[in-house]
């Protein structure tokens, strides 16, 4: 009998800035990206907000954080805090 090999699923991760930490165990993080216009070749900034799970409530407004994908925790939360990269003074 052969052993079944399990594939490790690579989790997506992003780095962004905390814009709200007012909820219990949840922070809102904004991730900015530069995109190129297909016709005019001009770069423009787009941003997206993610709700992340912060169990210990260590993320504060202004902090730069890294977060990774996880199972759905609520209607809007599908991400969890991995690390605080840079703290706001």
Describe the structure using short key phrases.
89 residues, mainly beta, OB fold (Dihydrolipoamide Acetyltransferase, E2P), five-stranded mixed beta barrel, globular
Give a quick summary of the entry:
This protein is mainly beta and 89 residues long. It is 0% helix and 55% strand. The model has no long low-confidence stretch (mean pLDDT 92).
Count of discrete domains: 1
CATH topology: OB fold (Dihydrolipoamide Acetyltransferase, E2P)
Strand content: over 45%
Q: Which CATH architecture would you pick? A: Beta Barrel
The largest sheet, given as strand count, sense and whether it forms a barrel, is: 5 strands, mixed, barrel
Q: Approximately how much helix is present in the residues?
A: under 10%
Protein architecture, described:
- It is built from no helices and 5 strands.
- It has strands at 13-23, 26-36, 43-53, 64-69, 77-86.
- A 5-stranded mixed beta barrel has the order 1-2-3-5-4.
- A hairpin with a 7-residue loop joins strand 4 and strand 5 (77-86).
- The chain starts with 12 loop residues before the first strand and ends with a strand.
- The model has no long low-confidence stretch (mean pLDDT 92).
């Amino acid at each position: 009998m052969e052993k079944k090999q399990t594939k490790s699923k690579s989790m997506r991760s992003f780095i962004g800035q905390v814009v709200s930490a007012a909820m219990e165990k949840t922070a809102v993080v904004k991730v900015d990206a530069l995109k190129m216009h297909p016709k005019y070749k001009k770069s423009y900034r787009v941003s997206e907000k993610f709700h992340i799970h912060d169990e210990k409530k260590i993320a504060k407004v202004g902090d730069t954080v890294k977060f990774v994908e996880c199972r759905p925790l609520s209607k809007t939360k599908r991400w969890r805090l991995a690390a605080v990269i840079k703290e706001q003074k």
